[in-house]
Each structure stands twice: as structure tokens, then as C-alpha cells.
């Protein structure tokens, strides 16, 4: 897979290193000469250019990229790069860094963004995830389909503890993708049982989040006689 990263700062270089270790081709783009540190990521391609300029993106052959990551420290730049990548070059997957949480609402498909990653929000979500049991925590927002990656740790009092995955009537537009149980990461099957303390990761439509939290968190009251 070929990936172009706009922004060769600490964030961009870190992403590039991870992708290279996983066997992908990576091009780092930055307009600041001081950011071009080939020796830090020698396996990557480097381009000294303004990623907001069409001529620069032509030189980068963006149409050959499977993914573009807008990872600069400037939200305006990340939006422009995302829009150009999607509309001018038809890049299948565009991921954009959100620096200011107040700008999150802009990072959607109208600006060419498939996945928006807000570092401040992600950090706060991870803190919540570490201390919350029974509360739904939003980890990541996907622009297409208005879906989010959410997590909930199943509490002891949940009515679903001991229930098989296939027997649960999950809300519409909701998919259980992973069960984290202790040190194990499980791909759920219909026969797997949910256990108290399981960390459950879902991709869910935002409109279904409250319904999902209610289903998992509260022990149902017994039916009246």
C-alpha cells in the first residue's frame, strides 16, 4: 500500500515509521526545509513541497496513493489537503488530524475526510476508557455513515453477562468487532459468551449509542407478575 503523509513533524514521522515497519510505501511531504530529516526516516520517500498546492501534489503522484494522511499541526492545511486528495486525485482513504477539538465538525466527507483523528479527544477518551465501567466511551469518529468506534466495559450488574453474542439483539447499525478479555483479543463469534469485565469495541451509528449503552449497562428489571 502506498501512503502519502502531509506533515513531517513528530506526528508524521511517527506514523511513517509504523507504516514502514508494516511493509508499506510512505511518502512524507513538508514545505519547511527544517522538517526534511531524511536520516530520521531513511526508508521513506521525502518531498519538500507545499501539500496545499496542486503542482506539489502532482509531483507527489497522489493519484497512485491508496491513503493520504493530513498530519500537519494546522487544521486549515489538513482540510485543504484532504479535500484535494479526495476530489482532485480520487484517493480512496483520507485520514486527517484534528488539532483543535472545536474544529471537529468540519472534518467530514464534505471536506474529503474519511476518518478524523482528534488527539486531544482521543487522549481524553483513553482516560475515560481506563476508569469507566458501564459507560460508553467514543474512541474514534468515521465520517462516512456517521459511525463511531466506541468502547464499553461490561459491568458486573449487566443483564448480558453470561449471554452468548448470537443471542443478543444488538441495535440496528451496530457491530461488535472485538472483545478484549484480560490479555486476550477475541474476534467474537455467535457462540462466544460475554463476561463481566470484558472490554467491548463496537462500530456504531451515533444515533444508536444511547440504545447500545442502555442494553449493555443496566440489569433488566424482572417482569411483573
How would you sum up this structure, described in words?
This protein is of the alpha/beta class and 225 residues long. Helix content is 24%, strand content 27%. The protein is built from five helices and eleven strands, in the order βαββαβαββαβββββα. It has an eleven-stranded mixed sheet with strand order 3-2-1-4-5-6-7-8-11-9-10, with helices on both faces. The longest helix is centred in the middle third of the chain and has 13 residues. It is elongated and about 60 Å long. Keywords: Ion transport, NAD, Potassium, Potassium transport, Transport. This is Trk system potassium uptake protein TrkA.
What is this structure, in a nutshell?
The protein is an alpha/beta fold and 225 residues long.
Q: Give the averaged pLDDT, no decimals.
A: 87
Query: How many β-strand stretches?
Result: 11
| H and E string | EHEEHEHEEHEEEEEH
Poorly predicted sequence stretches spanning 5 or more consecutive residues:
125-131, 220-225
Q: How helix-rich are the residues, as a percent range?
A: 10-25%
Please give the count of helices. 5
Structural class computed from helices and strand pairing: alpha/beta
Strand content: 25-35%
Widest β-sheet, arrangement of strands: 3-2-1-4-5-6-7-8-11-9-10
Q: What global shape is seen?
A: elongated
Question: What is the CA-CA span between the terminal residues?
Answer: 61 Å
Kindly provide the radius of gyration, computed on alpha-carbon positions and rounded to a whole number of angstroms.
21 Å
How many strands, what sense, and barrel or not for the largest sheet?
Answer: 11 strands, mixed
Keywords: Ion transport, NAD, Potassium, Potassium transport, Transport
Domain RCK C-terminal: 137-218
Pfam families: TrkA_C, TrkA_N
Domain RCK N-terminal: 1-117
Amino acid at each position: 500500500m502506498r501512503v502519502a503523509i502531509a506533515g513531517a513533524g513528530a506526528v508524521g514521522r511517527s506514523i511513517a515509521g509504523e507504516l514502514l515497519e508494516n511493509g508499506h510505501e510512505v511518502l512524507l511531504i513538508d514545505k519547511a526545509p527544517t522538517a526534511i530529516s531524511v536520516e530520521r526516516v531513511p526508508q521513506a520517500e521525502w518531498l519538500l513541497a507545499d501539500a496545499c498546492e496542486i503542482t506539489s501534489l502532482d509531483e507527489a503522484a497522489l493519484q497512485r496513493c491508496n491513503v493520504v494522511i493530513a498530519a500537519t499541526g494546522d487544521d486549515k492545511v489538513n482540510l485543504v489537503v484532504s479535500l484535494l486528495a479526495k476530489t482532485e486525485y480520487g484517493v480512496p482513504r483520507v485520514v486527517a488530524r484534528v488539532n483543535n477539538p472545536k474544529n471537529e465538525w468540519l472534518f467530514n466527507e464534505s471536506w474529503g475526510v474519511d476518518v478524523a483523528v482528534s488527539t486531544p479527544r482521543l487522549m481524553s477518551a483513553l482516560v475515560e476508557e481506563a476508569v469507566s465501567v458501564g459507560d460508553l466511551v467514543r474512541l474514534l469518529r468515521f465520517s462516512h455513515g456517521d459511525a463511531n468506534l466506541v468502547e464499553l466495559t461490561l459491568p458486573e450488574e449487566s443483564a448480558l453477562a453470561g449471554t452468548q453474542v448470537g443471542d443478543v439483539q444488538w441495535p440496528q447499525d451496530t457491530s461488535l468487532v472485538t472483545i478484549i478479555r484480560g490479555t486476550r483479543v477475541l474476534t467474537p463469534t455467535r457462540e462466544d459468551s460475554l463476561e463481566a469485565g470484558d472490554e467491548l469495541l463496537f462500530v456504531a451509528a451515533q444515533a444508536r449509542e444511547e440504545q447500545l449503552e442502555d442494553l449493555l449497562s443496566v440489569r433488566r428489571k424482572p417482569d411483573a407478575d
